[in-house]
Amino acid sequence: MAPPLEHGEHTSGPTRRSLLAGVAALGALGAAGCSRVATASTKDGGDLLERLRAAGVVRLGIAGEIPFGYIDKDGELTGEAPELAKVIFKRLGVDRVQPVPTEFGSLIPGLNSQQFDVVAAGMYVNPERCEQVIFADPDYQMLDAFIVRKGNPKGLNSYQDVVEKKAKFATGTGYAEIQYAVEAGYKESDILIVPDQVAGLNAVEAGRVDVFAGTALTTREVVKKSDKAESTEPFKPIVGGKPHVDGGAFAFRPTETKLRDAFNVELRKVKESGELLRILKPFGFTEAEMTELTAKELCGG
């Protein structure tokens, strides 16, 4: 979820986009049976990459969120981040990836307590998280979009439209879209909070709300089989008076700059070759989600 998203004072919803920045208790970790990795050296950027090469396996923290990182119906690890991890880590000399499922809010605590080696959950990069982990450059960017009735009868294409036209507005539990709407002038207590985009689609189809806000990817996927609703064109929410774009990336412990830097080198290669889009496309990503954003930009400089 996707992931600044889903946020601070609002809720602890277990989504990729939460601005909670991973402060949930470690007791929520779903990593029973997994031994901890050895503590990394903090000297000269850490030695985790060398240790992973020697072990031949890297542990990926995932949050069970489609399409970002999850275990499929056949019990196999997949999602945009794990599939990208398989490619990049193989190029780095690490042949296998091993999933360590946990709740989203436990990803950062789990990473920093050595429960796994890297967060591979499509986590949004934001300044709060950048104080706790280091990020690779984003492998995707994400704009917002609305689910509206067919034909978009109220002409809702931005949060400002929602406010000006006094539309009935819904979004998901913990979504950053709550704050985006509030920043545009919508009264928070008037927002209908539903569990996810499926519930949002149902609310629009039933006429309980005029609009549901989510990411461009999730909204366009969920309306594909609807004959009553459609997704609007993606747009940038206004944050702090400026158009804002979110970006999702892999997260590493702050001491492991060598691994992060090596990961970024290979990430640039798959971006430049077009392989990144081919990897992510099966999960609903399009050319519009490809990005040249950097972690430095999203961390605030």
What's the gist of this structure?
Pfam families: SBP_bac_3. This protein has 301 residues and is an alpha/beta fold.
Descriptive terms for the model:
11 helices; 29% helix; five-stranded mixed beta sheet; 15 strands; Solute-binding_3/MltF_N; D-Maltodextrin-Binding Protein, domain 2; six-stranded mixed beta sheet; 301 residues; TAT_signal; 2 domains; ectoine binding; alpha/beta
Summarize model confidence as the mean pLDDT.
88
How much is the radius of gyration in Å?
19 Å
What ranges have pLDDT less than 50 throughout 5 or more consecutive residues? 1-16, 18-40
- In the CATH scheme, what's the topology name of the largest domain? D-Maltodextrin-Binding Protein, domain 2
Q: Total number of β-strand segments? A: 15
Q: Which word captures the global form?
A: elongated
Number of helices: 11
H-E string: HEEEHEHEHEEEHEHEHEHEEEEHHH
Structure commentary:
The structure is a single chain. By secondary structure, the chain is an alpha/beta fold. It has two domains: 47-141 and 247-299, 3-Layer(aba) Sandwich (D-Maltodextrin-Binding Protein, domain 2); 144-243, Periplasmic binding protein-like II (D-Maltodextrin-Binding Protein, domain 2). Helix content is 29%, strand content 20%. The strands form four sheets. Strands 1, 4, 5, 6, 7 and 15 form a six-stranded mixed sheet that branches. The protein is elongated and about 60 Å long. The model is unreliable at 1-16 and 18-40 (pLDDT under 50).
